Amino acid sequence: MSTLLHLPSDVVMGINNATFDNLNIADKLEDTSMWGLASPQSKVAWFTKFEGRKGWREVAGTPHHMVRHGHLLSGAPLDKLRELKGNKEIETSLLAQVLDNTEMNPLRVQELWEALADVDREKSFISQASNLDVSQILSHYDTLNLVHTPHQHHVMLENAWFAQDKFNVPWVNFLAISFSYMNNEEFVSWSYKELQDLGKFLAILSPAEIDLIPADDFNTTMLSTILSSTLSLPQLNSIYLKYLENHYLVADATFNPLLLSALPSVTILSANPPFIWSQDKTNLLVASAKFSPGQMHSLHEISKSGHWAPGNLSAILSTHPQCMSDVNPREFRAKLDYVVSAVYTAGPDKFHIIATKVQKLPRHLLMAWLEEAHTRPGSKRLPGEWWNSDVLLDRVTSTSIPDSGTINPFPSHPLAAQFDRFTSANRSMLPSLALAGMSCHCINLVETPDTMEVLALYRYHTESQGKVAAMPSSARRCWAKKVRQFLHLKALLFNVTVNSESELLSLLTTSDIKTVGGEIFLTWGGPALASITHPEVMHEVLMIVGYTFPHLYLRNGVTYNCMKVMANALLDTLIREEGGINFRVLTHVHNLVPYTDTRVLEAGPADIRLYVSSVLSPTCKAVCLKKKERELVRQMILQSYGPPSTWLPLDLVELGDLLVVMARSDLAAVNPTSLRMASAQLASSTLFASSLTEIRSQSSSLLYHEACGAWLGGKDGRQSDEAVAMFKQWKMLANFIVVGNFLQVEVLLKKIDVPKPRSGVHEFRRKRQASTLADGIDYKSIYTIVMNDMKAKFDAKELSDTQKMEATRVITETQKMLGDSSFAVLGLEREGKTQSEVLAVLAEYKEAGNMSEAQNVQVQMLAVDTQVRMIQELVQVLNLSADDLDLTEDELGTILARHTFVLRSPGAVSTTTLTNRTLPFDETSEGTDGESVADELLINDSETTSNPESIESKNAPEASPSEDANDVSNNAEVTTDATPVAPGTSASPSRGTDAPPSPVTTDPPSPDTVSSASTSSTASTTSSTVANAASSSSSTSTSSTSAPLNPLIEEENALSELLKNTKLTDYIVFSAYEPSSDYFTTLPSMDSITLSCDVIIAAGLSSSSISSSDIARMSSKEVLNCLSTLGHLPWPPSVTKSIWKAVKEKVDSLQDSTMLPIKRDEMLQLGTLLPAIAAYDSELLDMGRKNIDGISLLGRFRTLSSDDPAILNLVQLFITLNNVSPSNPFTSTEAASLGQLLCGLREDQWRDLITPSVFSSILTEHLALLDCSVSATTSVHLSTMLTTLYGSTANWTSSDLLSTGWMASTLSPDQLSQLTHHAMEGLTGQAVKHLSRQQLGSLSHHQLSNLSPHAASFISREQLLPYTNMHRRRGIRAAGGEDEKLVDVMEDIESEMQMGDMKDMMTSPEPEPTGGVGAIYPTCRVLVCLLVTMVTFGL
């Protein structure tokens, strides 16, 4: 079963019926425990396959099948799940069991929830509340009498939500539940009871709100009630300060461990902290996950004394290995026995935990681990330096037999063999746990025959570090070299002659290809991979490249053109094999599909849709594409998912980050309810605002969308047009997500009755913008109630045959009247167009913006008329009373008396007319530029009619022009006078094509006549309506007077299809709680909404797309409450200044001189905005020592300009305010916290204020990460301190050099030249960036060729001029040949170097002492140079 569930989707779909039955796959799929291990994509593929083979009935058609295969519903489309509502054959308790026992997408949960009986909803609410739509939570509280007391309900939800390792509840759901436990939000008057009632749901309050609550309530008992791991550091800090007002800090059991995160550095380092290390170390290490850099360094300081004790070290490694990050490699190598002993002390029970946790050690320490392990006896394969693979991989051997009494808990785990070796009495140095730290030197020493086995375990460790993890560029390149060695060995063993790289790669087997992986293969480049000699090998290699996550393309040496070469080569191969584009082709091309060409559009819509839903994981959808390829993917989406206005919520979630390719008009057309329901998942799954490391020419991490632009721009980087366009596309998508979450919050705030500071602005706006009409009746709400009632009665089979017939007639006639009347408004002739064609023209006009203001107003009127007429007719059909509609008799009478579909010529529309006619929006509403309920009705009716699956387009007979003009029973055409006609009838127009549309009037049905009018329709009307709506043979033309073969079945099918295809009723339950606002008719733009902090929180990282103007529209209270949220968003550097200015202008405390400067508490909240404050308002920052934790948040930003006087002055201000002097130098915590601000130190201050002990303490974790330019004198001082600590550079290893980071740039040319060439991969980009021309020139070509590709990308033209000899240039090309910008620089300077080469050859005939390619004969070298010169100058 496990193997089946891991089959690729194309293999699943390719299983034929015989194989499906012979393998008893239906029986195997009953295994619910194994099904839970399948990916969401695999579940979709298997459901699709199973339903296609066995049918829907065997999934959920009977109770028996529901028990056997109900869990397959987790891969079903929403429309299938919707069919379960009202299914009398299935007990809803069975559906509830499926929900409780099956992990599925929340949107599927929401659909199944609607099918449950009230009693089952009540039982399942606690377990499913986090998966429900907010409207369902509100409905649950409205309609059910909970059997549990509020307190019990509260406790159960706390246990269900806050006990999780990671809090995964959508913010709006969290708010909806939390608000039910709040009686008021007058925080200043809260008593103990209000705080206790809220409990752990206190997490919804901002630090500013917590600050308002009286401190008396925060005693030890209350802390246990309200504290949870969900709270942020600023929230915990506010609670901590409240607690301090009435309590002393004492190291006893009463101090809540969750509050340890809020301890200031000064308290952590104090003589009497509120903890005892020996007892509380685990709690303290767990709490450190929220620490600021200052707090973290303080923790490292207090843990140092007992660092190497096995018990302490075991706790550190299993909880917070980052505590080791300030240990330098030399010390780590010397203490490795203690580290290994600590792992063994933890025991087999914690083996897998520690194996995962140690991957968080800095890479230089993992390198040092392997370097030391390699020196131990038995680690080398003699003779020589080769690794003994038994040792490196921790294999079980005859001398290391596992303990038979220890059972391996995970025998299928990738580390199962290492676990067995771990249990042996013969202890290992456990190098297998440190493989992620393999340096190039270490990789080169792997025994060549064992290359694939070592590489497989290496990849497991690196890829388990996160969904955007990547190999270091140096390791990737060195593994590629090692694979070449492996293939050459294979060629030798099999006596195969290899003359080219393409022939060498042809020796790869399927297992080799899977082990190597696309990330390493990309090092060869697109042309090389596309030219592999063996066609099957080429196919498999390119396929594995296609399975590589898109974020790895950005960090590799592959160019955009290379991607296109590979994509089209693979597509060509597959088309030859398959004869066209099908699902298998799309699956094999996988992530390369966007880089192909328009041939992929030949794939069927179903295949493309299945490719998106069952093949692409969320990580595969964050694509970086140029304009042409974005349009290609956009066309694929439109071809498979249809017009955006028809997209369901699950469609949006399936598309995910692929939505970045859509046009703005596409996203604007999405149904607001669909977006609202999908918004939480869109926000949580998007990758574009996550950070990527090792982006070429970037010394710090870069946001995904920025890295995307840098890659698309090639040598022009992020300044290129393509990069700018990509940024705009990301911003559009992120804004789209923000708007969706805005709509979610609107639904919640509409329902909440208690006045709330969060919702005050919303209530005001909603009163202005609600679509309540001038007669005081909200027609949209009444319409929803009517449609709700009809849908519910239809599902419950409570409608009579007559009612079904009449309801069908009403819907189809009204839709037709809307389309035809709108057509007339535009002054267009019908000219024999069918209803589908009419509505298609209307949709075209809408999209093109061709309607005048007057026409737009009239179309809005018609939209209201549509709702009114449906109400008038269906009230009678369904026998609804005023009470049923929550109306008075007078209000119902007003509705029934209202005339509908009365048109005037555009010139006749006046302000008075509009007021009397009651538009859907009052005159103060915002965003009425054609974005109204009319748009939704036009779009939805057009879709219902033109959708390939709709009854109108597939089965309705097409009338001739003459029939269209004279069929009074079905058409509502324009009349020549205003004489009222009966509902559903019309007269033909008599006017020229240029004449304005004449009035068309439909009298309202009177209460006395409606019934007879509805039930006494002519036979022709009834039969024509049913024929148009019911499923009948599309090839048979039925006249208006002929009756269907089985009228009752036809009527039921017709109404069923209409209800399915009418978008306004798709989400009745979900839309019932939506405000009657234009926001829920067409999507609002960002400028037309006012954000709240709850919206920003709900939208997650996508909120980093909001602008300063968005913040300017927020209320001051909202911005104050949102400081912590805004201060933890990953803002693009280009906008931080404007964002900070907007925030500053909104928060009084940031302008009030009595409340300034900004201190620790505010700094903890402002976080990512601190660099902007430092650059533009540095005087606002309090640089006092007591604020060191807040200052450390600023110091961690390596992007702070090292030459900005305002920023550089901050460290001088700190020195002055805190009396730092040679006699009172920086403490290690202060120096570590200042971080990048240390770049502002003067020469004497570097010398006098940073002592050798402080230097040693902060070197690897802080000084190594600086990005500074310092004087020659300072460089000498720092390099002296460095070599005093590490010894001569001639003895440095890769880990030593890597741990120094930027500090290596202070080494003298002589010291740099002594570095061994295999240690050079440790030279980082920060160091290369700051090397002078003399320093770079001191490196040999062997040293330069061993630079990592990332470090080489920092080499600039200025560092190479006026002359760099050819050997060094060759070394630079070898290291940085995959960087387009560096290659361009090297090519550009080549002509300038020719004369220097000639001179160099003449005056220095001897080869470089390093040997290699420089050691050719002088005469040959001169001849080569002469030849190059002649070619260059055309001689």
In summary, what is this structure?
The protein is an all-alpha fold.
Structural notes for this entry:
The protein has a two-stranded antiparallel sheet. The radius of gyration is 36 Å and the shape is globular. With 1435 residues, the chain is mainly α. Helix 19 (233-244) packs antiparallel against helix 66 (1160-1166). 55% of the residues lie in helices and 1% in strands.
Provide keyphrases for this structure:
single chain, mainly alpha, two-stranded antiparallel ribbon, 83 helices, 4 strands, globular
Uncertain runs are 753-774, 904-1045, 1062-1066, 1406-1435
Secondary structure category: mainly alpha
> How many strands, what sense, and barrel or not for the largest sheet?
2 strands, antiparallel
Count of helical stretches: 83
Work out the number of β strands: 4
Helix content: 40-55%
- Give the overall shape: globular
Please write out the topology.
Blueprint: H1 2-5, H2 9-13, H3 17-22, H4 25-28, H5 32-35, H6 40-54, H7 57-60, H8 63-69, H9 78-82, H10 92-101, H11 106-114, H12 118-128, H13 134-143, H14 150-162, H15 171-179, H16 192-198, H17 207-212, H18 220-226, H19 233-244, H20 265-268, H21 277-287, H22 293-303, H23 310-319, H24 329-334, H25 336-346, H26 351-357, H27 363-375, E1 380-381, E2 386-387, H28 389-392, H29 416-422, H30 440-444, H31 451-463, H32 473-493, H33 501-505, H34 510-521, H35 526-530, H36 535-546, H37 550-554, H38 560-578, H39 583-589, H40 605-614, H41 627-641, H42 649-655, H43 664-668, H44 672-685, E3 691-692, E4 702-703, H45 704-712, H46 721-751, H47 760-769, H48 779-795, H49 801-825, H50 835-848, H51 853-877, H52 889-897, H53 911-917, H54 933-946, H55 951-955, H56 961-966, H57 1010-1015, H58 1019-1029, H59 1047-1061, H60 1068-1071, H61 1093-1099, H62 1108-1112, H63 1116-1121, H64 1123-1126, H65 1136-1146, H66 1160-1166, H67 1170-1176, H68 1188-1195, H69 1205-1217, H70 1228-1234, H71 1243-1249, H72 1252-1258, H73 1272-1286, H74 1294-1300, H75 1309-1313, H76 1325-1329, ...
Antiparallel strand pairs: 1-2, 3-4
Helix pairs in contact: 10-12, 19-66, 21-23, 22-70, 23-25, 27-74, 32-34, 34-36, 36-38, 38-39, 40-41, 42-44, 44-46, 45-46, 46-61, 48-51, 49-50, 49-51, 49-58, 49-59, 50-54, 51-54, 58-59, 66-68, 68-70, 70-72, 71-73, 81-82, 82-83
